[in-house]
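ok so i was messing around last nite and threw this chain in just to see what happens. nothing serious, just curious
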Amino acid sequence: MKSRNLALWEQSLLLIKENVTEQQFKTWFQPIVFESYQEETKTLLVQVPSPFAYEYLEENYVDLLSKVLTRVFGEGVRLAYRVVTDKAHHLTQVLQGSPVETPVAHHPTDRANQSPSLLDTVSQQELDSQLDSHKSFTTFIEGDSNKLPRSIGMSIAEHPNSTQFNPMFIYGPSGCGKTHLINAIGLHIKQLYPQKRVLYISARLFQVQYTNSVLKNTTNDFINFYQTIDVLIVDDIQEWMTSPKTQDTFFHIFNHLFRNGKRIILASDRPPVDLKGMNERLLTRFSCGLIAELEKPNVQLCIDILHSKIHRDGLQIPEDVVLFIAQTANGSVRDLQGVINSLLAYSVVYNCNVDMRLAERVIKRAVKIDDKPLTVDDIVETVCNHFNVSPSSINGKSRKRELVVARQVSMYLAQKYTKMPTSRIGKLVGGRDHSTVIHSCSQVESRMKSDAAFSEEISSIERSFKLKG
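result:
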């Protein structure tokens, strides 16, 4: 009798194999060991290698198992699992599976939130990707702070079926362009591969959907829907650090997509190692692909971003105002966009030109200025950006006129805006002594009195950090 029942189980496996991918079959069904089938109770007992395997089968393949076992063993069959809980000591536990229901004949309906099966073929609804069409690679300006993530993101978009760099985990501070980049990847994939099911979602909305599915007892439908996605993009996953149940659910979705070669793109305001409270098994999976940092844009990239937006919006903004905005926006793309939008509104409503006075007025309202006091490094960096020289050249021994001027201005402003003694300022600016700092300050003050253009240059530099002083 056992050989007959074993043959029925093997027949079931063949039918299952026709309805899943080869990788799915090898991972989840091939390790299952047939133990027995009790005719009196119609109970099929199988052994699975771990509690996780049991959970995964129950969460993801219960419908498929139900249809197959009913077809092969007949109606009313019950499935039970012997779960190996400790391999070293040969400890097992028998757990009951979900009730095997007799399939009810019905006409196919649209159910995009359920996973398809060849045993019950359904058509998937068209999926709204939730992507922002304005956040494309065309409008994502490249710079030193984002060159690597942008290049890899473009490669992923062009080859989404590649297993390389999967998952892609992007992290960086607020306003550095994470949401723009992951949107751009999704948009490019949809452009090149229209048939792909691409979905962008915030971690918070995912959590709300999951909570609703628990309340409505539709968690399986929720999970099945996400398992049909080809490219899943989740933003701000740090939101899950205090939500273990959401983490567990996403873990199973992640595993399903990953094992089936689907693309996963994640964004966070911190790297995986700093996601305190996140499940360790999730962190391991987050780190197994590519971790890419998006840094705050430097002043030059801010200028390039401003020029791009100014051109698109048809604004006329003087270069000194552009530089002032770039230096004052705290390296935040979001702040840059907010300032330009505000300037555009002011210029239209009041029919006025955009000048430095208007820019200062807008920035006070639109940008949260850092409360930290200025440092000598801050001042040197600002001066170098203004004079288009490098900090290393300022700290060097060169006596070229433009470098001498930049060096003297750095010392003058450091003496004016910090509480450091001249001897300390001298050490921080090229290792000079206190007498050099005093001489530099005197030179700058004298020139400002006789050279109006030079005095305006100093004022322009000061505008970029005067609100901090």
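not much to say yet. Residues 102-124 have pLDDT under 50 and may be disordered.
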